[in-house]
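Key result, reporting period 2: structure in, sequence out.
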């Protein structure tokens, strides 16, 4: 782009979020090695109308070739496949019926959801030991079940600890697809093993390695 040109997004076609790569990156303070904004954590602020962001200087040449992502490497965010899960560290806090409910039901993403977590509407999950645990670490993708039995799916801006039992965790290979879902979307879950989750992740890594070679 040249100075004064305008980049405009049209109607959304697939997924909730779009990404723009800026050579050199934006000139904003680094926090823990990242220039990302995390409004809930008071790191940076949300963009305001007509706000200007400065770009960092860079030494490398601006690429002269225009590269287009091959169709077979473009993610399909409209596909309705289940989100794949591994069982969580507090699986024994839930009845067998509660676990069956999770995998046999359809949930809807609540409009109150944000980058921290998806709240869901759907059948309540039966709890055997009560929802509360001694606070322990949480990873993005963990699925907590509070007292009302409605799953909470933690996303990239998740807190680092929590006190609700975790029935399952999203397979890493499905986290990006999950993050592109919108409030109102329906979501189903599929149980997989740890070995299957690793195999899927390695397949995705090989696919991205091939893509990097194509774009060189």
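The corresponding designed sequence is given below.
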């Amino acid at each position: 782009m040249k100075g004064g040109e305008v980049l405009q997004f049209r109607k959304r076609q697939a997924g909730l979020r779009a990404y723009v790569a800026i050579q050199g990156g934006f000139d904003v303070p680094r926090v823990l090695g990242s220039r990302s904004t995390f409004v809930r954590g008071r790191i940076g602020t949300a963009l305001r109308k007509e706000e200007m962001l400065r770009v960092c200087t860079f030494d490398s040449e601006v690429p002269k070739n225009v590269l287009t992502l091959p169709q077979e490497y473009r993610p399909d965010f409209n596909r309705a496949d289940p989100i794949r899960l591994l069982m969580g560290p507090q699986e024994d806090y839930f009845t067998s019926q509660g676990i069956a409910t999770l995998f046999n039901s359809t949930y809807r993403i609540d409009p109150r959801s944000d980058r921290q977590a998806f709240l869901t509407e759907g059948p309540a999950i039966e709890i055997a030991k009560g929802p509360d645990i001694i606070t322990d670490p949480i990873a993005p993708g963990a699925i907590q079940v509070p007292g009302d039995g409605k799953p909470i799916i933690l996303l990239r801006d998740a807190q680092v600890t929590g006190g609700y039992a975790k029935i399952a965790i999203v397979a890493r290979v499905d986290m990006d697809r999950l993050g592109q879902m919108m409030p109102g979307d329906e979501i189903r879950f599929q149980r997989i093993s740890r070995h299957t989750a690793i195999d899927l992740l390695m397949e995705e890594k090989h696919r991205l390695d091939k893509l990097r070679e194509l774009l060189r």
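The domain at 83-195 is CATH 2.40.100.10 (Cyclophilin). The chain has a mean pLDDT of 90. This case is discussed further under Risks and Mitigation.
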